[in-house]
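Entry type: protein chain
Record version: 2
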Amino acid sequence: MEHDAQVLVLVVNERHAIVAYYVVDSESEEQLKPAFNALRDRLERLGTLDQLQFWVTDRCCEGGNPLGHWIKAVFPAIKRAPTKARFY
């Protein structure tokens, strides 16, 4: 099966270990939300959903309000999302 996905999304923990990864066509909410909903469900089953508290991205807040970003609805324990990675 051939696919032209353009984006590799890595979810890493504080020890820089990969928790999950996704290959999607774009970084749009439409593309990411199904993957992140599945991650939320997995973390909830493991009892670790409340541990995901921060989100860092190379896209900053995508022009929107970081406190009202859609990802906060997926991961309710996030305190402020997303923040831009300091090395950018």
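Comment: The helical segments are 29-46, 71-74.
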